[in-house]
Specification:
Layout lengths: L1 E8 L3 H7 L5 E2 L5 E7 L4 H4 L3 H5 L6 E8 L4 E6 L5 E4 H10 L6 E5 L8 E6 L31 H7 L6
Amino acid sequence: MAMLVHITAAKNTRSVRRAGIRAVSSARSGPSGVYCLPVLPSYQITHQWVRELRRGGQRTLVAVYFRVPDDEPVEVGHYAHVPRQMTSAEATALIAAQVDARGYQFFLSRPVAAAEIHRIRSVNQATGWRYMPDAHGRPPCACPICNPTGQYGAAKIRKSFGDPDD
């Protein structure tokens, strides 16, 4: 059985313990489900999405570990590419074989029952990447999608690019 980890807000801990993980995220193909990653030997790769998810406004995130059968169908791929459908065992092997697995993700197109949950743990809040893997050394994008109005530092970034709106 594959051990997977889902990152969620700490305020959801009681609800997850009681009822499991709801399938509220939507994939490109349409159905709702749960985004997760396999537990790998690298803590950084396993919990890589923490820092990016904190950008959404959540102050504290936790990791929810759960098991699914090896033949469970999942969608897997890099967030910037179209995902492929395969079993959870094949998808875990695919991510483990990558030289740089940052940006990869699983999509499980069903909710996770409370009985499948193995453990809920706190996670290092500074783990992972922001904006995109290897963003260090690149100038930030000033478009309104990457830097929406009101986001910390967005006006300064737009001003440095000479955006006429600011």
